[in-house]
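Support request from a user on the community tier.

User writes: "When I paste my structure tokens into the form, the page sometimes reloads and wipes my input. The last time it worked, I copied everything first. Here is what I submitted, just in case something in the input itself triggers the reload:"
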């Protein structure tokens, strides 16, 4: 099975490629590109069996690439890979055979590859895929225990008990521990659903902090509240809707 990976993050392309190669020696990565325009060109020239498409990319996004493939009647199976779960229905309207939400779970990816290996031609939505849409639109999460995080070109596995805070920044979430900082692509709102509410508090739309790591709470002259953690002297803003969390402190 010949595969193209299209994602604007080199680290994520590398990680997905390694996962696929580990799953089966029959999965061959024939190209890895960083934007939608390159993806469309490589698909046209290489005619892969499968393309893993990030939805949000520079130039053409993943949905636009899929639409172009449909118009040109290029027969390749599409798997959308994204950090966001709000495009599932659009993805299947463009003929996706599957839809993966980052961070990619190896068990979930294995199911995808089995579906791909059993597909004899380009797939169209069926009952199984409609079930998947419902799952991605209303995900049910288990409590988060381990995190796969990136630091430079390396992937680390850290326990959630090591985390002091999560801070959303651009496309990434920075994961801060006592002695290091890492990045992940999981949206903060998804992390909030997987973290224990008695252990972690979301004090701002961009910050989740471990309660036991809070060393000080203060207000400025304008009444804005801030917290400081044991990890350093950085003042973290507290939204007004979260002020009530600190009434008993």
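"...and here is what came back when it finally went through:"
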């Amino acid at each position: 099975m010949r595969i193209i990976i299209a994602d604007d993050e080199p680290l994520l392309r590398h990680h997905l490629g390694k996962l696929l190669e580990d799953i089966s020696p029959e999965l061959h990565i024939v190209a890895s590109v960083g934007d939608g325009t390159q993806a469309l060109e490589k698909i046209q020239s290489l005619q892969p069996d499968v393309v893993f498409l990030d939805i949000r990319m520079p130039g053409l996004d993943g949905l636009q690439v899929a639409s172009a493939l449909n118009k040109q009647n290029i027969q390749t199976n599409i798997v959308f890979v994204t950090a966001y779960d709000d495009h599932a229905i659009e993805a299947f309207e463009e003929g996706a055979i599957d839809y993966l939400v980052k961070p990619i779970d190896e068990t979930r990816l294995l199911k995808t590859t089995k579906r791909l290996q059993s597909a004899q031609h380009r797939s169209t939505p069926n009952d199984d895929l409609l079930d998947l849409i419902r799952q991605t639109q209303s995900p049910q999460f288990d409590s988060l225990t381990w995190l796969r995080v990136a630091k430079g070109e390396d992937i680390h596995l850290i326990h959630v008990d090591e985390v002091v805070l999560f801070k959303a920044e651009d496309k990434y979430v920075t994961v801060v521990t006592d002695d290091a900082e890492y990045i992940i692509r999981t949206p903060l709102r998804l992390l909030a659903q997987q973290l224990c509410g008695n252990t972690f508090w979301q004090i701002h739309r961009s910050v989740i902090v471990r309660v036991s790591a809070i060393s000080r709470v203060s207000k400025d002259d304008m009444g804005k509240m801030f917290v400081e953690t044991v990890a350093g002297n950085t003042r973290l803003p507290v939204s007004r809707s979260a002020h009530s969390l600190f009434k008993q402190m």
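Agent notes: The reload is a front-end session timeout and is unrelated to the input. The chain has two domains: 2-137, 146-246. The CA atoms of residues 99 and 115 lie 12 Å apart. Escalated to web team.
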